[in-house]
Amino acid sequence: MSEIIMLVFIAAIIIYGIKCKVPIYETFIEGAKSGLSIIGTVFPYILAILCAISIFKNSGLMGYLVNLLKPVFNIIGFPAEAIPLSIIKMISGSGANAILMDTLITYHPDSFIGRLSSVIAGSNETTIYIIALYFGSVNIKKTQYALPVALSCDIIGMIISLLVCKIFFG
Fold first, then answer.
1. What is the tens place of the pLDDT at every residue in 11-26?
2. Model confidence pTM above 0.90
3. Where are the domains of the chain?
């Protein structure tokens, strides 16, 4: 079904372009050129954040940060097993998916930790990645309140995820 929808969508665009007498191929080429220039602008920021994520995960800094945060998270009843996902989700979506898969394999999808991890993965944003990419690509050096507000929202999202899971899954 989705293949048919995509085919109909593309055909509708082409038919509409022909009806409006738009040079379809030339317009497509112009769009592709502008897309390549955007990639050239954004790529260095993507590369930098991916390197930073790799260093963060492989240097042991994440384990140190998890151990540092455990007492704080224990106060609100947040399981220590979900802390790595909560941290990585702020930085990397693919890294968070990998940690989620490990968590689900280790603790089972129907466990409280599995459900909490799934809710966190689905409800929080890759805040640091987004701020680095978007602010960097438009050359904004001072993010002012964007980072503290976004990280506060991530923390609120984690707490609400915990509350929702406790209400629905005990």
1. 999 999 999 999 999 9
2. no
3. 43-169
